[in-house]
UniProtKB/TrEMBL annotation:
SUPFAM superfamilies: Suppressor of Fused, N-terminal domain. Residues 47-230 form the Suppressor of fused-like domain. Signal peptide: none annotated. The lineage of its organism: Eukaryota, Metazoa, Ecdysozoa, Arthropoda, Hexapoda. Pfam families: SUFU, SUFU_C. Residues 244-443 form the Suppressor of fused C-terminal domain. GO terms for cellular component: cytoplasm; nucleus. This is Suppressor of fused like.
Length: 451
């Protein structure tokens, strides 16, 4: 990744870029030429970095609101800057409709200033590398960020020893939705968070955790400013917030409807005569089926050593309304399985607890997605499912569904008690077996489960 730190030259800006710059200049009228990080080789010329520019502004904050001075980073390139198809597809099919510009958003980031101001001080450039990495993920997968999303990063955002190792997505408090010549653009702000804050955002909902962070300047304040020196989570600093969160989860359940996770499955047949159906057969079918496009937008498991949780698929209890159609077969044929053996990667084991306790128990559904297929656990009250109490395991296209009956929920939660604190030093593989349901769940690396 080759970047260059420059002061912008006075050139004629393309229409989309010009409109965004106007928005920034309205916010920072005294900073007409902020420092920028720009890719040496533009994306449309074969470069690897999709962002044309990342501008870095000094924001004085607002002392009366306990908002400290900070650096404000703003990207240009996730939206359509040029409108000529060089980066983003141009849709002129219906000129009466209001369209999103490109991906429909740009990213921002606010980083607290650790030292008093000086005329020659320059902002750190590591946030620009972080924003480019996030932009590459969006371009590679086609997945847009939305407010409340969580982004597990698994390492300090600035490659130090900081406890700020993950991110949530918020609205930028000062940059409002903007209409450009090529459509609407929102400004999504990256907010650095701790491991515990990410875990609770996954269990509950990202917006709820963001609201907790806003309540005190030490955790970001109203403008959600990231402080890489912050060592404690909002729940450690203010224990009452965790107690309230647990109450909300107990009463309302979790908004997180799915995550990326490696898994495999195979059928547990009731008779030896039947040909077993498994994920390996389905993966081959995915590869051979002409209806499956190889470049369809499925979230990659790893991007630059970072693992991204899937954005919530929906808060709807209808599977038909909430699941990507690319996983569903053009035919309506459902393959019902006699029984199921599911092998789930260790890092995703904690989501089994969330799925059953905070989703299924509240009448909802939860999905694990890998590169070729998806597995959705559904409660009895979910509509649109292809499974029932009589046939609880079924496959439709590249989508497997598992019904968790109401009278099975407490049984599973009792079995999963040892997962509450994470897998830790647990010996793998770890097996959970319910012979009366013809169901087995194994916590282990999925590739190790094939003979």
């Amino acid at each position: 990744m080759e970047h260059k730190l420059v002061t912008p030259a006075k050139t004629v800006a393309p229409p989309g870029l010009k409109k965004l710059i106007e928005q920034c200049q309205n916010l920072y009228p005294d900073q007409k030429n902020p420092l920028q990080v720009t890719a040496l080789l533009k994306y449309w010329l074969g470069g690897q970095d999709p962002l044309d520019y990342i501008s870095m502004y000094f924001n004085p904050g607002k002392a009366e609101l306990n908002i400290p001075p900070h650096w404000h980073y703003i990207t240009f390139g996730l939206s359509d800057l040029h409108g000529d198809g060089r980066v983003h597809q141009v849709d002129n099919s219906d000129e009466t409709m209001e369209h999103l510009s490109g991906m429909g958003f740009e990213l921002t980031f606010r980083l607290i200033k650790q030292t008093p101001s000086s005329e020659n001080e320059k902002p750190p450039t590591w946030p620009a590398n972080l924003l480019q990495a996030l932009a590459r993920y969006v371009f590679q997968t086609g997945n847009r960020f939305v407010i409340g999303d969580n982004v597990p990063w698994r390492k300090s955002l600035d490659s130090s020893t900081s406890n700020i190792q993950h991110m949530l997505i918020a609205n930028d408090p000062q940059l409002m939705r903007t209409k450009t010549p090529f459509g609407w653009v929102d400004f999504c702000q990256i907010v650095g968070v701790t491991e515990e804050e990410l875990d609770q955002a996954s269990r509950w909902n990202g917006k709820g955790v963001l609201n907790l962070l806003k309540k005190d300047p030490t955790t970001g304040g109203e403008w959600l400013i990231t402080n890489m020196n912050r060592s404690q989570s909002v729940f450690a600093l203010f224990p009452d917030t965790l107690q309230q969160l647990e109450k909300d989860l107990e009463n309302e359940g979790s908004d997180l409807a799915g995550v990326n996770a490696d898994f495999t499955f195979k059928e547990i047949p009731k008779t030896k005569i039947k040909t077993e159906f498994d994920s390996e057969m389905l993966a081959v079918k995915c590869t051979l089926n002409d209806n499956v496009q190889p470049d369809r937008a499925i979230k990659s498991e790893t991007i630059d050593d970072a693992k991204f949780c899937s954005t919530p698929l929906s808060t709807s209890n209808s599977l038909n309304m909430s699941f990507p159609p690319s996983y569903q077969s053009n035919s309506l044929q459902v393959v019902h399985l006699d029984g199921l053996q599911l092998t789930l990667a260790p890092y995703a084991a904690k989501f089994l607890i969330l799925a059953i306790r905070d989703r299924i128990r509240h009448g909802r559904h939860f999905t694990f997605k890998n590169q070729n297929m998806a597995l959705t656990m559904v409660s009895e009250s979910v509509t649109g499912a292809v499974v029932s109490k009589k046939t609880p395991y079924g496959v439709l296209g590249y989508w497997m569904q598992v019904l968790i009956a109401d009278d099975f929920i407490d049984v599973m939660l009792e079995s999963f008690k040892d997962l509450v604190g994470g897998i830790g030093a647990m010996t793998l593989p770890r097996e959970y077996n319910w012979p009366d349901r013809n169901l087995k769940i194994i916590i282990d690396n999925p590739e190790q489960q094939y003979d």
